[in-house]
Fold this protein.
Amino acid sequence: MNYLRTDLIYFTLSDLFALATVLLMLATRRLATQPFGRQTPSWYAAVALFLFGLMLGSLVKGNPTTATTVFAQYIFSFVLLPMAICARPQSEIIFLVKIFVVSVTLIMLHGAFMMAFNPDDVRFVSRSGRMYGLVERENATGALGAVALVFCQWLYFSRKISVAVLLLLSAPIAYGILLTGSNTGFFLALIGSFLLIFLSGSLRLLAASIVVAFAVLAIVALWGEYFLPEIFVKRVYGALQSGDTSQAGTFEDRFALNQEALELARETIWIGLGIEQYRVVSAHGAPVHNTYLLTLTEGGLISLIGLICLPAIAFYIGWRAFFGRHTHLSGALTITYVCLFALSLNGFAHIYARFWAIPLLLAMSVSLSQLVATSRPR
């Protein structure tokens, strides 16, 4: 919940509790120095590559002071948080997944309430009428909702929640995604849901989901404009009907930024511009909303390799679990989330915010905890 933060630096209320957890675990010698088991050295090496390129560019071309702050943010998200969250027993990981889903549900309920009763409150509703709620970012809220839906589905498939709880949690999350008017969130939700169902290996679930999907699509195509939220109809539904990308939010503006980043990347292959320097040199005065291109331009090829290795390591963990005898569903969740994460990076800038790290760590931990549990002698 980004809204609950200090104005001095990016430090949220949840970060305070996370830091307290890290310090307590360190004091009691319970901090996990090998949070990903045998893959831990690879993870640390990937983070080191990612940050080395960014810091090198900042020292040579950019602003070292700004770079130090962002450097610390990434260390907190991808080094300290794994030590506190991962390597826990399976029961604790499942509990944390449930907390994540419930917290996103609360964010969506709060945002929907503000949209309905106080739509002029610019703290939670954009001037264009899009909900960004406590996350304070419309597309990020939509993406978080998509991820929460996938986790919620997995909890049901794994028999951790009932169908009633599934519907109770999924309804406000899905409605919240519509209120964000986010093409990113909408398509991530569709892709994630169907990919998890497909990887689950259940023909019954797959057949049922296809039938339901066609029924919903038919209803939406015929009467969607009468019951869907106005902002969703304006930004997503209209573009889907007409095929006109100019109606799909800021698609064309982002495409222009991507083209500019590709041009800049020709000069930043070995040494990047430095952290937060893209907006300085950009003709648009804004960072490119593509983490891969932003990393290539600000950190060079070294940083890009490190960035790509992070989801690759997570995918490998999910792959191992996917082909395990008793860990198939856990692997399906991890692989599904890694695919969503990799797709998400095409639409966002820096990813040191904790709402990017936490779902990735939880998705990895689901597979890791079950692999550890099933490897122990019974």
Remarks:
- The two ends are 41 Å apart (CA to CA).
- The CA atoms of residues 273 and 281 lie 9 Å apart.
- The chain has 14 helices and no strands.
